[in-house]
């Protein structure tokens, strides 16, 4: 039996997971899915910034469009650190197509004109 | 003459202005001191915003963007780079900025949505030298996320509020070593999900019931001393730990930025440090409303949006249909409850039900939130767990207040 706090939303359900991955204490189905993933293969959305030229600020916030394997977080950060954008940038615009072979894109999170 | 002037273009001001427009006001002005709308959301680049409001997990800038786009579809006027200096009780708004110079605008209603600022080293009086390298967590967040500077390489964080936890992860991701997160209370002030994904994911130790008792260093922070504290939060001699670091981030609380509110002659609540408000977010001064973190500090922007929409709709109703009527019932804090918003409810002005937001003053296990009028119990709400770090919210049907006069009490009963 494992105790787990759900991080899917700010509600923060306290969940219990048994050896055959049955989840209790979750308020919604997303919690059960998170608990199973967390005990088999944990993933996280990575948010950071990239350099941008020609905008009012020198950095543009970005995020992975979907969660990536937790053990790849620092690898993803390295890839994000090598990017420089040029303004204008739209929300949702692709910054990296497939980051570190995860099949997940990195996208811009702020409009900078 | 404007129908409504909104002071502050952060999440509260944006939602309030949109709601006022939807409810029929057409002469609306938002005044924002920064160069962009969006407020603090622009530097909160982490995700987790919008789960309640948009049913999606957004970053701060994305959440702001949604509201800025909504606003762009209205005819609401926006003045950025403009600072409001004064709001008078007769609703004159004094402002200044490079585009307009000093200007006085008159309004039929005003919504105060200035948000809050951080408590600093001075506010908590940490002994020691005064070197560079001591930042509030929010200032460091702005440097890293907007300006592109890393404020330090070896970091200790005092306070486990959400901004402190978020910055522990952010500094780690950008290559700094976060040595410890130190919390004076026996529990964290932040959301549990942030403990998991900001500290535990990166093996950053959390020292509960500890505080920083000395800052050392001549020009730059060189060391901080951390001591355990007793139950009355006094440092225990002999428990000192010394951390070699160049940076101390402070996440030690937020203060609603209410100078304008006070100058307008609004009655304040010393517990929330915001205005005392009625069920529709109206203050003691007719026509002045407040919403968002300037009223009380929220955990989640989603609730700020909801509250601010109520304020916007109420301002529209005030301008178009006149002041709200009726006697009020005061909300009293019972056992375990530290402060409620609203503090006063006018049953005549409520259609079906009203929401009461509050924080508990310690951690409770399985409990019930009980609302009563004298000896008479009105309603109760079950909770599995209550914590001061997480704002509670109950919906009370107004028909329960029939025959109630004077005051009602909200209290916690542990089961």
Structural class of chain A: alpha+beta
Question: What order do the strands of the largest sheet of chain B run in, or round the barrel if closed?
Answer: 5-2-1-9-22
Outline of chain B, from the CA principal axes? globular
Indicate the proportion of strand residues of chain A. Answer: 25-35%
Mean pLDDT of chain A: 93
Protein structure class of chain B: alpha/beta
Q: Please give the alpha-carbon distance between the first and last residues of chain A.
A: 51 Å
The major pleated sheet of chain A works out as: 5 strands, mixed
Strand content of chain B: 25-35%
Structure report:
The complex is a heterodimer of chains A (113) and B (415). By secondary structure, chain A is α+β, with helices and mostly antiparallel strands. Chain A has two domains: 2-40, no CATH class; 47-108, Roll (CPE0013-like fold), CATH 3.10.530. Chain A has helices spanning 29-40, 73-81, and strands at residues 2-5, 14-17, 23-24, 43-44, 47-53, 59-64, 68-69, 84-86, 94-96, 106-108. In chain A, the strands form three sheets. In chain A, strands 8-5-6-10-9 form a five-stranded mixed beta sheet. A three-stranded antiparallel beta sheet of chain A has the order 1-2-3. In chain A, strands 4-7 form a two-stranded antiparallel sheet. Chain B has 415 residues and is an alpha/beta fold. Chain B folds into three domains: 1-117 and 253-324, FAD/NAD(P)-binding domain, CATH 3.50.50.60; 120-252, FAD/NAD(P)-binding domain; 326-415, Immunoglobulin-like. Chain B has helices at 11-22, 60-72, 121-124, 137-147, 162-173, 192-199, 259-263, 301-321; strands spanning 4-7, 28-31, 47-49, 58-59, 77-79, 83-87, 92-96, 103-106, 110-112, 116-118, 134-136, 154-158, 177-183, 206-208, 210-216, 223-228, 241-244, 247-250, 254-256, 268-269, 274-275, 288-290, 329-333, 337-341, 344-345, 353-360, 367-373, 376-383, 392-397, 407-414. In chain B, the strands form nine sheets. A five-stranded parallel beta sheet of chain B has the order 5-2-1-9-22, with helices on one face. Chain B has a five-stranded parallel beta sheet with strand order 11-18-12-13-14. Chain B has a five-stranded mixed beta sheet with strand order 25-23-30-27-28, with no helix packed on it. In chain B, strand 12, helix 5 and strand 13 (177-183) form a beta-alpha-beta unit. The termini of chain B are far apart. The chains are: A alpha+beta (113), B alpha/beta (415). The interface between A and B is medium-sized, with 29 and 34 residues.
């Amino acid at each position: 039996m494992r105790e787990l706090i759900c991080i899917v939303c700010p509600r923060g359900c306290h969940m219990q997971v048994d050896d055959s991955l049955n989840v209790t204490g979750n308020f919604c189905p997303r919690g059960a899915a998170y608990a199973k993933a967390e005990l088999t293969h944990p993933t996280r959305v990575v948010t950071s910034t990239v350099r941008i030229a020609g905008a009012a600020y020198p950095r543009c916030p970005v995020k992975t469009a979907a969660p990536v394997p937790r053990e790849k977080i620092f690898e993803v950060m390295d890839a994000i650190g090598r990017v420089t954008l040029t303004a204008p940038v739209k929300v949702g615009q692709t910054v990296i197509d497939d980051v570190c072979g995860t099949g997940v894109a990195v996208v811009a999170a702020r409009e900078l004109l | 003459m404007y129908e409504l002037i909104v002071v502050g273009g952060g999440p509260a001001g944006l939602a309030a202005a949109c709601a006022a427009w939807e409810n029929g006001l057409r002469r609306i002005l938002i005044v924002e001191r920064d160069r962009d709308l969006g407020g603090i959301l622009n530097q909160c680049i982490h995700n987790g915003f919008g789960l309640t409001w948009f049913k999606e997990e957004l970053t701060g800038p994305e959440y702001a963007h949604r509201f800025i786009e909504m606003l762009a579809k209205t005819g609401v006027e926006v003045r950025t780079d403009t600072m409001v200096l004064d709001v008078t009780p007769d609703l004159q708004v004094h402002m200044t900025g490079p585009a307009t110079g000093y200007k006085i605008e008159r309004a039929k209603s005003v919504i105060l949505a200035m948000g809050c600022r951080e408590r600093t080293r001075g506010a908590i009086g940490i002994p020691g030298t005064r070197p560079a390298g001591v930042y509030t967590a929010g200032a460091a967040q702005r440097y890293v996320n907007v300006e592109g500077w890393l404020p330090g390489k070896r970091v200790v964080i005092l306070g486990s509020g959400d901004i402190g936890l978020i910055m522990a992860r952010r500094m780690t991701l950008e290559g700094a070593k976060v040595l410890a997160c130190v919390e004076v209370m026996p529990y964290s002030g932040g959301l549990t999900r942030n403990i998991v994904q900001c500290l535990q994911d990166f093996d950053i130790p959390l020292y509960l019931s500890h505080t920083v008792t000395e800052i050392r260093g001549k020009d730059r922070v060189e060391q901080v001393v951390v001591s355990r504290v007793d139950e009355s939060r006094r440092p225990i001699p002999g428990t000192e730990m010394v951390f070699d670091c160049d940076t101390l981030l402070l996440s030690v609380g937020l203060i609603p930025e209410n100078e304008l509110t006070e100058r307008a002659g609004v009655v304040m609540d010393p517990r929330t440090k915001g205005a005392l408000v009625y069920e529709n977010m109206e203050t003691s001064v007719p026509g002045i409303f407040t919403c968002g973190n300037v009223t009380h500090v929220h955990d989640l922007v989603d609730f700020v949006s909801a509250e601010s929409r109520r304020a916007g709709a109420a301002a529209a109703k005030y301008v178009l249909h006149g002041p709200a009527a009726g006697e009020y019932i005061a909300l009293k804090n019972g056992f375990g409850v530290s402060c409620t918003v609203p503090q006063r409810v006018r049953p005549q002005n409520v259609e079906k039900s009203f929401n009461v937001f509050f924080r508990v003053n310690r951690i409770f296990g399985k409990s019930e939130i009980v609302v009563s009028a004298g000896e008479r119990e009105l309603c109760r709400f079950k909770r599995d767990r209550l914590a001061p770090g997480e704002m509670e919210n109950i919906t009370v049907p107004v028909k329960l207040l029939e025959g109630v006069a004077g005051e009602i009490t909200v209290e916690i009963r542990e089961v």
